[in-house]
From TrEMBL:
This is DNA-binding PadR family transcriptional regulator. Residues 16-88 form the Transcription regulator PadR N-terminal domain. It comes from the Bacteria. Pfam families: PadR. InterPro entries: Tscrpt_reg_PadR_N, WH-like_DNA-bd_sf, WH_DNA-bd_sf. It comes from Paenibacillus harenae. Keywords: DNA-binding.
């Protein structure tokens, strides 16, 4: 089943920050990790991922650096302390949202 793009829009930042909280990654690695972790339900195109990373960088939630491995230069991203703080807030917000939607549609326990 494919997920509506509008639903995805609200969860992209929390997914990216969560990945970077686990380890530093480059863009393509992030897209593959999201796809694999979600069982193929979530797929990010470069046109979706990089603008989000750029915004997070401007907001100082992530920072980037270049690293060369095996003769290949890649731009890596890592979460900052501000990004970790934001991730904590986003997780609380997500939890409240998820349980409230479940309650409304009858899937949660009142």
């Amino acid at each position: 089943m494919k997920i509506n793009k509008e639903l995805m829009k609200g969860s992209t930042v929390i997914l990216i920050l969560t990945l970077l909280d686990r380890k530093e990654m480059y863009g393509y690695e992030m897209t593959k990790e999201i796809e694999q972790s979600s069982g193929g339900v979530f797929t990010f195109k470069e046109g979706t991922l990089y603008p989000i990373l750029h915004t997070l960088e401007v907001e100082q939630q992530v920072e980037s650096y270049w690293n060369e491995e095996g003769g290949r230069k890649r731009k890596y991203y890592r979460i900052t302390e501000l990004g970790r703080k934001q991730l904590g807030e986003k997780k609380k917000e997500w939890s409240l949202f998820r349980t409230t939607v479940d309650r409304v549609i009858g899937e949660g326990h009142a």
